Amino acid sequence: MSFSGDVKNELEKQVASARHCQLAELSAILINAGLVERDQAGVYTVYLQEEPGKVSRKFFTILKKAYNIDTDVRVDMPRKIVSGKVYRNVLSGKDETEAVLKAIHAIDDDGNIRGPEEGVSQRLVMKSCCKRAFLRDTFMCIGSISDPSKSYHMEFACANKIIAGDIRQIIDSFGIDARIIQRKKYYVVYIKESTSIVDLLNVMEAPVSLMNMENERIVREMRGAINRRVNCETANITKTVNAASRQTTDILYLRDHYGFENLPETLRDMAEARLQYPDATLLELGKYLDPQVGKSGVNHRLRKLSELAEKLRG
Q: Which of 35, 78, 200, 231 is the most buried (most CB within 10 A)?
């Protein structure tokens, strides 16, 4: 299963104990994965998307806890297809259903169904705990998160611009920076920073997923640090080898066209040491000389040899 699926499975098991938080959860599910209709007799029918099934299960669990209502997907009722999504009847009736819908502000006091353009009812998310509950079930409905071993990206794909703005505002209330981008017909609320994603997992109360992501993040950072160090050392080795190769070429040119006997003793000793130890570093070369010379002294003498070779070539 994907990391995103693991997070949703963990969130499915997190059910708020306080009734006001349970109402926020029901509202989140209905806003992001549900439909409400009313017939001429005033009977309300609630539909939920057929997939993912965990959303329906969470809806039934909360409904049982908050209202002691036992319900299930009405398989005997025809499916409803809206914008390519399949919905099933999960709750129908007048008084009891109306009471639930009023409590989560899905309908107003006159029984009129709230449209998506009215956004999230702020009365349901006034408390911090209710905001957590709302975000938790919103992620179950429309959220996704990338595998932290590959990249850092978390998003909520909203069908409505107003809802996207409300979700962003709720996330921002926890000090987490989220942004909105339009992708085809969706308004996507997204987070790219790994620390912000970890913070939001904590807000939604997904501790297992949080720890798994932190472990992956530590591994990625260590791997990145090792790669950077290896690349740096490789570059240094390459630089050293190339320099030694140029120095050896210059010294051989001097030997064949100038003669070591014409070199000052210090440069002659340096030239012979480089030919004898072609892979040695500057520091190591200095130790092979008698008397020993420091790194800067070796570099100075090798530079003099290269300058002389270039002068002869010219």
A: 200
